[in-house]
């Protein structure tokens, strides 16, 4: 609670200064979220079937994540009215080592810990090229993970420098918002920067290269009335990566690859009652690296309960949104490169339960 109050105080103080003089840099919005995530899987079965109440036993805890995000948007008046978008994320993970109850192998009850820092910072501006006007981004993504133990996470570091426009496009009768970006990247350790191989797969334990992102997103309302509202969304991410260096496994240069990440989903929210609402979300995410055999597909259904309220302040509107969600259905099918070696087969499906509880705080400045 002290951290949340501290963030609220920061939001109010920064925004008050930001609007004091419209000739100075101004804050457009700022947001903060803190969420606790706990996954369970039935470790008494080789199939890892986490469905049902059996998954909630303490011995079946798999991964605990505490995720904190702080982001915002600034208008830099003195720098030619550039926009500055930023987001910082910190994940703290605790992973219970897998224990096979049938073979009695593994170290029961031990915990690996990891911490990840991420940022995405970008300058943006509307640029006119002939009759075409688009918002161009120049940004930097950074990820770094450290920890102890075999299951402590993807330890290492990655950087991505990207530049390119955002635009609208009509595709199969549907309007999409798109991004086309040139990317320079480097990676070390177990980080991959959307490459098919991590840094450790290269002879020097690291690599760098160039690539491009071509992303499309769309969303819309199916209905919004007295029965609540139903929204859908589609995201199609296509990330080309061409890394330098030779792979340790083959001794050959790494192939260029395209990371495909396609997400479709829909969320239903009940009508609000004194600020309270219920929700149901269904989502399917399919991932593949074109240079490697296999794929990963994750289908999930979430239920949730939340509360949302807006507080009018002199500087803008402050929104508070605590929310609790439970993943009632989750089927993760993996094949080939996505196989973590847990089972003696090229393709399998595993299932988890997950509970999430968090708070979102946002301020829209007038």
From TrEMBL:
Query: What are the entry keywords?
Result: Signal
* Signal peptide location: 1-20
Q: Which domain of life is it from?
A: Bacteria
Signal in keyword set: yes
Designated name of the protein: Porin
What species is given as this protein's source? Answer: Leptotrichia shahii
């Amino acid at each position: 609670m002290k951290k949340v109050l501290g963030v609220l105080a920061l939001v109010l103080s920064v925004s008050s200064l930001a609007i004091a003089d419209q000739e100075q840099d101004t804050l457009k919005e700022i947001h903060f979220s803190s969420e606790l995530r706990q996954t369970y899987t039935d470790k008494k079965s080789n199939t890892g079937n986490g469905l049902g109440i059996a998954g909630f036993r303490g011995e079946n805890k798999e991964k605990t994540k505490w995720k904190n995000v702080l982001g915002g948007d600034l208008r830099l008046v003195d720098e030619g009215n550039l926009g500055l978008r930023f987001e910082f994320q910190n994940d703290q993970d605790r992973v219970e080592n897998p224990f096979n109850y049938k073979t009695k192998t593994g170290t029961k009850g031990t915990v690996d810990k990891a911490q990840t820092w991420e940022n995405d910072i970008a300058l943006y501006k509307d640029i006119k090229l002939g009759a075409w006007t688009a918002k161009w981004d120049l940004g930097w993504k950074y990820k770094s993970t450290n920890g102890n133990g075999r299951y402590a996470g993807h330890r290492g570091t990655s950087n991505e420098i990207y530049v390119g426009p955002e635009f609208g496009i009509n595709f199969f009768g549907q309007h999409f918002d798109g991004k086309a970006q040139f990317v320079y990247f480097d990676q070390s350790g177990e980080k991959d920067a959307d490459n098919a191989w991590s840094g450790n797969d290269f002879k020097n334990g690291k690599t760098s290269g160039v690539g491009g992102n071509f992303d499309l997103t769309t969303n819309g309302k199916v209905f919004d009335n007295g029965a609540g509202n139903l929204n859908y969304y589609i995201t199609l991410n296509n990330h080309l990566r061409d890394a330098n260096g030779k792979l340790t496994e083959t001794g050959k240069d790494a192939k260029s690859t395209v990371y495909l990440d396609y997400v479709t989903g829909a969320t239903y929210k009940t009508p609000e009652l004194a600020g309270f609402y219920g929700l149901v979300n269904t989502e399917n995410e399919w991932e593949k690296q074109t240079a490697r055999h296999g794929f990963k597909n994750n289908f999930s259904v979430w239920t949730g309960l939340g509360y949302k309220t807006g507080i009018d302040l002199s500087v803008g509107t402050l929104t508070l949104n605590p929310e609790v969600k439970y993943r009632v259905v989750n089927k993760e099918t993996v094949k080939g490169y996505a196989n973590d070696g847990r089972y003696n087969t090229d393709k399998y499906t595993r299932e988890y339960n997950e509970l999430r509880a968090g708070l979102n705080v946002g301020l829209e400045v007038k």
